[in-house]
Each structure stands twice: as C-alpha cells, then as structure tokens.
C-alpha cells in the first residue's frame, strides 16, 4: 500500500482531529484535501512515478502537503535541511537526479544559477496556489519496494549516501511503533522537531497521523514554551533529542511555578545517546523515565525500551522492534552476552539500499544482515546497549577504548554538564583519548581534576590524556555530537 493512502484512510476516519501549527488549526479533513490538491500541482509539472522531488523548506504546512502529495502520486521525496549551503544542495540535487526543486523565493534566488546549470525544474512555495487545483482522488498503487524517501546520511566521512526508504519500510515500522508505544486516538503529540529529518517526519508526524492523534506543532523549540504547552494543551506525548531534554531540565529549575504535566503519558528520546545523568535528572524533577529508542536513516526505528516504565533503564536502547532482528557480531561470529561487537540488523524496516551506490550497498550487507556501524552488546535477555560508532573506536597502544564508556564516567562528575570523548593521532600510542567537557553553571573544575576522577574510576589507558573545557560541543541539527570536528580541532595539539 502507498503510505500516503494509508494516512489518508486514517485522516478520513477521524476528519475532526486537528493539527495546530502555531496560531492556526487544521482539521485532518482539511489536510487530506490539500494533500490531494498538491498532488494535482505536482502532476501539472510533470512529476511521475519514482521521480525525485527535493523540498528545501522551513517547517510548514506547505512541506506537509507537498511531501505527502508526492508520495500520493508515487514519486520520491528528498527532504533537505533549510540551512544547507549551496555546495551541499548542489550535491544532493545532482546525485539524486531530482526532477523538481521546491523552496522559498529567497533561497531560489540565492541558488538560481546553480539550479539552472543542473537543468532542474523549480518552484517557489510562495507562488503555489493550491486552491486553483482539483484533488487527485486516487493514490498511485505503489509496489512494496517502491521508494518513498531518499534520506541522505550525515556523511561525517566520505560522500553522503542516499538511503532509499520504501513505502513498505515506513508502513511496517509505523505499525510496530504504534503497537509498542500504544499510540492512539486519545493522544495529543507535541511536535517541536524539524520535519526534514526521519525523527520529526517519519516517527513523530506520520506516527501521530496514522494513530489519529491530535498534533500540536511548534515551528521552533523553546523549552519554557514546551512546559507551558504541555500544561495548557494537556499533551500526552513528546519526542525529543538529548539536547532538548537538557534544556528542558535547565528551564524547569529556573521556573518559579512548575507546570502541571499530569496529562503526560510518555517522553521519548532518540537521534543521539541519552546520558545516564540526564535520564536520572529528568526522572527526579518530573517523575517520568524517558523512553530511549534506537534508530537510523537506513532502518527507521530498530529498538526501543519497553513501554512499561519500570522496565526502562538508562544506558540501554531496549529490545528489537517487532519485524526487526538484532545480533552483535565480532570477527564474523555472533557474540556472547556482554561482549562488544558491531550491531547487525535484519527486517522489514531495513532500507532498499544506497541510491546509485551498488558497491556501497553490497559492502553494507552480510548474508542479508545490514551492518549498522554501531558498536554495542546485549545482555542475557537480548537487551541492547550501545557503546559508540565503529569509526569512533579508539585504539591506543593496541587496546580498544569505547568512547561511550569513558563518557559515562565523566558524566558522573558533579560539576560536568556534558562531555564528548574522541581519539586523535598520537606518535607514541597511535591514538590517544581526549575529551571536551561543558561545566555546570557556577562551578569550577580543572583539567587535572577531571583526569584524576577518570583514573579513580577507569583503567588508566581509557582515561583522557587531555580534557578541554569548552562552552559548547559541536552538534548537528538533530543533536548528534560531531566528533569528526573535535578530532580535526584538537589533532594538531601534539
């Protein structure tokens, strides 16, 4: 089935459910009609089955209409971060061989020369008048292997790879999450994530529409407004990344009058590892244990902590979702419990392959299992724990150091708010362990004190040789720490 058709069925079953976007309220019936009008607009520009349509738009109703309209007619959406540079946009448009590029007037003016050279059709969102189009009533009957999205991976090393995500991948993953997280018509989701990313678009927005839940959508994240909205709107679900949860904790402590959050059913975190200390802090102030889950562009959601709050534990991303299998592999053999290896996955959520990269696709699979590049281990029950990316593994003096293990220790220090551990080249050891830390406000701690703290809690070879105290740690738009930047920044300090 076409994903857009499945969501259409949910919306016409619950036509009075609403999506509130800032000051405007849109019924599901209104949204459904505008998606079908947007489909007519796309068809008028010659968009056909499996053509790529790139959307570089701010978070908006236009993005929602155009994305689902694109799926409705069987084409492929290429969601692009609005902050991408000209060079980045040129790569994505060129690599994907996009048929159409839709953005705002100012951005189109900025990129016009580059886009013209590529010979791609363009449209400025301000010039699109959907009221002048008739609805396309019939959805394109997609095959289960038809691609719905091309999501380009972060590309911290090498070229960005376009993960081809199918309608079947999205539908199966969406249904597994609905069952596990008990998404229902009684829910009200507070949506503050970007929608050019899988987390905000696929997990949050599509999940809520599929479950026929009301949606309160903010254009940007504002922690004080989040707490106020939870109380005012009686929100039941919130999805965020660790950076947002840290800001929510900090803001809570500054608010003289604490909000009433008794309506809340579940707080969910993903896109980056949730620090143990933050899990505990959030529980202490709210009484809620954040549900951490594990996902990636190539597979949507892979694992999740259980819905039952007493079964959620910090440092773990839980168990494989229904329809997905997980195994941990070392030297091509399945590991024993608590033995670290690379996480392999298999299931109906796993992507079709990398766009126009057959060799890279082939390299990424082994006997039908996708090699995630994440390092982790399982306990005797199959619960998964992640320790970092394979590419981030530090080998110092021939010994393996997993950054996450060191980060967990540093985060236990009372004066430290946030940390990132990474490796840099070293003449003597091959690589050495270093760390950056952000201190809690109104605290003072020296580099040597932090190193000594580590030595009291870790084997000495795992301890940072240097600790850099900084105001901010570089992150991407989804809150993932960019360790490649840290390695480059500090690698010359030999």
Strand content: 25-35%
Low-confidence stretches: none
Question: So what's the overall shape?
Answer: globular
Structural class: alpha/beta
* C-alpha-based Rg, rounded: 23 Å
Strand order of the largest sheet: 2-1-10-9-11-12-13-14-15
Instruction: Kindly report how far apart the N and C termini lie.
Output: 57 Å
The level-1 CATH class of the domain at 3-142: Alpha Beta
Count of DSSP strands? 27
**Mean pLDDT rating:** 94
CATH architecture of the domain at 3-142: 3-Layer(aba) Sandwich
Question: Number of helix segments?
Answer: 14
Helix content: 25-40%
- Can you tell me the CATH topology of the domain at 3-142? Rossmann fold
What does this structure look like?
- The protein has 494 residues and is an alpha/beta fold.
- The strands form 6 sheets. Strands 2-1-10-9-11-12-13-14-15 form a 9-stranded mixed sheet, sandwiched between helices. Strands 16, 17, 18, 20, 21 and 22 form a 6-stranded antiparallel sheet that branches. Strands 4-3-5-6 form a 4-stranded parallel sheet, with helices on both faces.
- A hairpin with a 2-residue loop joins strand 1 and strand 2.
- It is globular, with a radius of gyration of 23 Å.
- Among the domains are: 140 residues, Rossmann fold (3-Layer(aba) Sandwich); 98 residues, 2-Layer Sandwich (GMP Synthetase, Chain A, domain 3).
- Helix 1 crosses helix 7, helix 4 packs across helix 5 and helix 8 packs across helix 9.
- The protein contains 14 helices and 27 strands.
- 33% of the residues lie in helices and 27% in strands.
């Amino acid at each position: 089935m076409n994903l857009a058709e499945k969501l259409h069925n949910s919306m016409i079953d619950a036509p009075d459910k609403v999506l509130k976007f800032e000051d405007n309220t849109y019924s599901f019936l209104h949204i459904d009609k505008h998606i079908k009008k947007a489909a007519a607009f796309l068809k008028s520009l010659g968009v056909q089955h499996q053509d790529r349509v790139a959307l570089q738009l701010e978070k908006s109703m236009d993005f929602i209409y155009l994305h689902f309209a694109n799926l409705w007619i069987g084409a492929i959406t290429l969601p692009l971060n609005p902050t991408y540079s000209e060079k980045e946009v040129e790569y994505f448009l060129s690599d994907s061989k996009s048929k159409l590029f839709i953005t705002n007037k100012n951005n189109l003016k900025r990129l016009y020369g580059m886009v013209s050279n590529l010979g791609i059709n363009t449209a400025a969102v301000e010039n699109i008048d959907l009221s002048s189009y008739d609805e396309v009533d019939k959805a394109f009957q997609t095959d289960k292997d038809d691609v719905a999205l091309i999501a380009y991976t972060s590309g911290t090393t090498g070229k960005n790879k376009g993960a081809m995500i199918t309608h079947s991948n999205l539908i199966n993953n969406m249904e597994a999450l609905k069952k596990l997280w008990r998404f229902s018509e009684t829910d009200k989701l507070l949506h503050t994530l970007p929608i050019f990313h899988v987390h905000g678009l696929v997990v949050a927005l599509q999940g809520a529409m599929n479950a026929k839940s009301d949606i309160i959508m903010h254009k940007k994240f504002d922690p004080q407004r989040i707490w106020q909205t939870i109380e005012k709107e009686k929100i039941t679900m919130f999805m965020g990344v660790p950076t947002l949860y840290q800001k929510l904790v900090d803001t809570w402590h500054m608010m003289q009058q604490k909000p009433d959050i008794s309506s809340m059913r579940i707080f969910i975190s993903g896109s980056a590892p949730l620090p143990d200390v933050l899990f505990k802090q959030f529980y202490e102030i709210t009484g809620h244990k954040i549900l951490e889950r594990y996902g990636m562009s190539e597979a949507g959601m892979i694992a999740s902590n259980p819905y039952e709050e007493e079964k959620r534990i910090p440092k773990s991303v839980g168990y494989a979702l229904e329809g997905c299998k997980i195994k941990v592999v070392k030297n091509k053999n399945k590991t024993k419990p608590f033995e670290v290896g690379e996480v392999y996955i298999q299931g109906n959520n796993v992507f079709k392959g990398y766009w126009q990269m057959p060799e890279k696709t082939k390299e990424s699979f082994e006997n039908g299992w996708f090699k995630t590049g994440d390092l982790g281990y399982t306990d005797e029950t199959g619960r998964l724990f992640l320790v970092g990316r394979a590419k981030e593994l530090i080998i110092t003096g021939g010994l393996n150091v997993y950054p996450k293990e060191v980060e967990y220790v540093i985060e236990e220090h009372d004066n430290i708010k946030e940390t990132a551990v990474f490796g840099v080249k070293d003449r003597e050891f091959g690589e050495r362990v270093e760390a950056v830390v952000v201190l809690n406000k109104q605290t003072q701690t020296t580099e040597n004190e932090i190193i000594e703290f580590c030595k009291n809690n870790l084997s000495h070879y795992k301890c940072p040789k240097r600790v850099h105290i900084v105001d901010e740690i570089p992150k991407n738009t989804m809150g993932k720490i960019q360790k490649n930047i840290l390695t480059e920044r500090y690698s010359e300090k030999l």
